[in-house]
Write a structure and sequence with these properties.
74 residues, mainly alpha, 3 helices, elongated
């Protein structure tokens, strides 16, 4: 089938790479624990720096907090 022959509808839109990646099975990987939504006050310059590093800044903040927690537990 050629691209021009594919019928796109609101119910079946064109798939993006992001959409496809979310559908990939996490075979053999650890289960990702659920996240909890919180309100956190962060200095504006610190938040701006994390955001300037690109998408995924909340994930990076979480990883840094986790590393701090693990280091403090030693």
């Amino acid at each position: 089938m050629k691209d021009g022959e594919i019928l796109l509808t609101p119910e079946h839109p064109e798939a993006s790479v992001k959409h496809i990646v979310r559908g990939v099975v996490r075979s053999g990987l650890k289960v990702v624990p659920p996240k909890t939504s919180v309100s956190l006050r962060i200095d504006a310059d610190v938040l701006a720096w994390f955001k300037s590093q690109g998408g995924g800044y909340q994930t990076r903040i979480n990883a840094i907090l986790r590393a701090y927690r693990d280091a403090a537990a030693r």
